[in-house]
Amino acid sequence: MYPSSHDINAKYAQGYAAAAPMNIHTRQSYPSPYGTAARWSTGLFHCCDDPANCLITGICPCVTFGQIAEIVNKGSISCAASGAVYGLLLGFSCLSCLYACVYRSRLRAQYDLEEAPCADCLVHFCCETCALCQEYRELKNRGFDMGIGWQANVDRQSRGITVAPAVGGMTR
Fold this sequence. Notes:
The protein is mainly alpha-helical and 172 residues long. It is built from eight helices and no strands.
């Protein structure tokens, strides 16, 4: 039998309450009330939500990719190293898209995000810049300060400075 709307709403609210402070050592996601993968915090084409990142990604996507990769890898590979590899692969557009696609899949797995609007590789092949911007915004909305890297985020959390994840944006 199907759960009542009250059961779904209670589970949904309970999941958001549990996700309140950022904890970068545990897998944290915005739970879906239906037991399926969670939605992305922003859409693929919401690049104007963060115009500074949109500009940087448009001019030099290896910077944005490096920041994403360092957080997804939990600091095991530096931003500079990941960005440099991505930059070298940019000459072979298929290879850079495949490389970035792997990180999108890892990010989705860490936060139990839906594979939307289509398969990860298609998202990167068709709209690489928008995909990188969406991944950047997702991590930022989950409380990461993307400019300081993994270790500084860990240090910030260990000092007790936590940032509550953004639950949703206001719309008109």
